[in-house]
Amino acid sequence: MSEAKSSMRTPLGRVRGLGSAKSGTEHFWMQRVTAVANVPLTIFVVGLIISTAGSNYAAVKATLGSPIVAIPLILFVISVTWHMRLGMQIVIEDYVPAEGTKIVLLLLNTFFCVTVGLGSVFAILKLAFGV
């Protein structure tokens, strides 16, 4: 049997080298990269929470004022919100059958993740710079 007859891809898909989803591999890898990045960043954040537990506002503000703390914390927020958006996108695409509802939920998912991410980064920067 020739490859053209045994393949389930369209002729255009074979020429472009793309599967039916067009971008699934990139999405898959970005979710895995953020998951791997989340491991050390989460360990850092848990350690930060434990070390500042019971501290007053001034002590926490001083701790977050350090670039050694603020930068990994910002990276954590970016990585976690990006990972969350990718994961929820898959759930929405797989389990919401109505196309209009799916589009609305995908937009809301993106807006929610961007809002949470930007708000968190703003709060960290505000504490770090003491504004």
Describe the model.
The protein is mostly helical and 131 residues long. It has a single domain (22-129), classed as Fumarate reductase/succinate dehydrogenase, transmembrane subunit (3 helical TM bundles of succinate and fumarate reductases). It has 6 helices and no strands.
For the secondary structure, the number of strands is: 0
Beta-strand content? under 5%
CATH class: Mainly Alpha
Topology as H/E string? Answer: HHHHHH
Q: Which CATH-level-2 architecture? A: Up-down Bundle
Mean pLDDT: 88
> What overall geometry do the principal axes of the alpha carbons give?
elongated
Topology:
Elements: H1 3-6, H2 11-16, H3 24-52, H4 57-64, H5 67-95, H6 99-129
List keywords for this structure.
single chain; 131 residues; mainly alpha; 3 helical TM bundles of succinate and fumarate reductases; 6 helices
What's the quick description here?
The protein has 6 helices and no strands. By secondary structure, the chain is mainly alpha-helical.
